[in-house]
């Protein structure tokens, strides 16, 4: 039996160290903007790609946000749309954490029903240090992703029908 699906779960992965705060920065901005909207849940998770599962309650949309490390230039924004049958397209190296999102999604797919598409936003790390300094490019990208998600997921405000 298929569960009743509603709303969205947006999960920001990260840590308190430098650019690895990217996912948390996006979630903080979303939480401020979404104050009072119950259909969209934005939550922070520490560095594991599986911590989000206990918060998942059959959302229509599932979005993950994280800092990534690949060969791209620092600050490069990555946006992927995945299907549960194509998790292998998400390299495990996209996560800077132990158990990455790819592995977490594979485990989740075995125990819960996921939405047909899952979105991933990542930004290329510039630095990840104990001084907690976040590079301005990462802050700018967090604002951009937050704005994109708000436009995509929020219902129109004060819309009027004109006849």
Which terms would index this structure?
163 residues; alpha/beta; Rossmann fold; disordered N terminus; disordered C terminus; five-stranded mixed sheet
In short:
The protein is an alpha/beta fold and 163 residues long. The chain has helices at residues 22-33, 101-111, 136-153, and strands at 8-14, 40-46, 61-68, 77-82, 118-124. The protein is built from three helices and five strands.
Query: How many H/I helical runs?
Result: 3
Low-confidence stretches: 1-5, 158-163
Overall number of structural domains = 1
As laid out across the biggest beta sheet, the strand order is 2-1-3-5-4
Strand count: 5
Category by helix and strand content: alpha/beta
Task: Give the SSE order as H and E letters.
Answer: EHEEEHEH
Strand content: 15-25%
Structural write-up:
The structure is a single chain. The protein has helices at 22-33, 101-111, 136-153, and strands at residues 8-14, 40-46, 61-68, 77-82, 118-124. It has 163 residues and is an alpha/beta fold. The protein has a single domain (8-153), classed as 3-Layer(aba) Sandwich (Rossmann fold), CATH 3.40.50.
Task: Draw up the topology in text.
Blueprint: E1 8-14, H1 22-33, E2 40-46, E3 61-68, E4 77-82, H2 101-111, E5 118-124, H3 136-153
Parallel strand pairs: 1-2, 1-3, 3-5
Antiparallel strand pairs: 4-5
Helix pairs in contact: 1-3
